[in-house]
Amino acid sequence: MSPSLAGAVLGALCGSGLLLVAWRVVIIRRTPLELRVTPWITDLPRRDEVRSRQVVRPPSDSPWAAASGIARPALRRAADGVERVLGGAHSVERRLERAGLDISVHDFRVEQVVWGLSAFAVAAAWRIIAAVGGQGQIVLSLLLCLCAFAGGVIARDQRLSTQAVERDRAILAEFPVLAELLALAVASGEGPVAALDRVVGRSSGELSRDLTRVLADIRTGEPVASAFEQLSRTTGVPVVAQFAQGVAIAIERGTPLADVLHAQAGDVREAGRRALIESAARREVFMLVPVVFLVLPVVILFALFPGFVGLSLTTP
After folding, report:
1. CA-to-CA distance for 96 and 159, rounded, in angstroms?
2. Would you report the helix, strand and coil content of the chain in percent, each value rounded to 5?
3. Neighbouring C-beta atoms of residue 278, cutoff 10 Å
4. pLDDT (tens digit, 9 = 90+) per residue, 123-158?
5. DSSP helix/strand/coil, 30
6. Which residue numbers delimit the Type II secretion system protein GspF domain (predicted)?
7. Which pLDDT score is estimated for 169?
8. pLDDT grade, residue 71 (50/70/90)?
């Protein structure tokens, strides 16, 4: 590496360090004293306003805790910037509920910033290694680092969508069994709340967690119909929403609940059969790909190659 390039790299590193120091000084001056002192004082009451702006944790002797405390205001402002650029807070909140993640939209934006910074660090390390080898271009490196940051932010958003879809599939797979168990418990003479308590206590899974929250709401004094209506509004699976609405209506109008649960479980199983048949029909088309593009050309080659060889031998 030439001396001029080495000097440019060292100067860029020193300038970046000075910019980070100046940025940190500005952040410290702008951060309210209450936000910086409250997490380390456990005797004072934690107000809702402070809790909404910052996650309050007990003090720790770990250096990572100190580092996170220093970087948290910067991450919070970066998360606010990502929210202003991307928007869609309602969609994010809806997907967080579907994925079963007990975090706020702001915490998710902070995770997006962390993913983006991780991708930025990887891209920056790669471009620094390329610059040491004499192949670095400053403008291209900056563009790649910015693209890596944006890619990390988008990757976290896509990961959230994937988590929501995977949880919806797990709930759909668990629903027929839990619906049948509830129907059996109700048919045996138990009430809706007792049947729900029995099924939740003997099952595990994503749908069981949702029903556990419904049971907790009922035990805190919320009416049974209202708790199930809340489940129908928050779930991302249409079948479960229909089930919750059916239970709420059956309780309000006095409809036999066991028959409703048996019917809905049968509908879900029938829908699963139809989805399986449709998936098998699509797989038949994909199975033709290796036959047409691999097996058939080999068969034609074996059938015609001896003839071509014979013609080449007999032709003068």
Report:
1. 11
2. 85, 0, 15
3. 10
4. 888 888 877 777 667 778 888 888 988 888 899 889
5. helix
6. 179-304
7. 85
8. low
- Which residues 6+ apart lie within 8 Å of 74 measured at CB? 23, 24, 27
Structure tokens at 19: 């910019």
Q: Which residues contact 234 (CB under 8 A, 6 or more apart)?
A: 97, 210
Contacts of 81 (CB under 8 A, 6+ apart): none
Question: What average pLDDT does range 307-315 have in this prediction?
Answer: 73
Pick left, alpha or beta for residue 60 (phi over 0 → left; psi -120 to 50 → alpha; otherwise beta).
beta
Distance between CA atoms of 232 and 243, rounded to whole angstroms? Answer: 8
Nearest to 179 by CA among 250, 275, 233, 234: 250
CA distance 52 to 62: 24
Q: With 60 as the cut, is the pLDDT of residue 52 above it?
A: no
Q: How far apart are CA 128 and CA 10, in angstroms?
A: 11
The answer to whether the CB of 108 falls within 8 A of the CB of 96 is: yes
Tens digit of pLDDT for each residue in 240-253?
Answer: 888 888 888 877 77
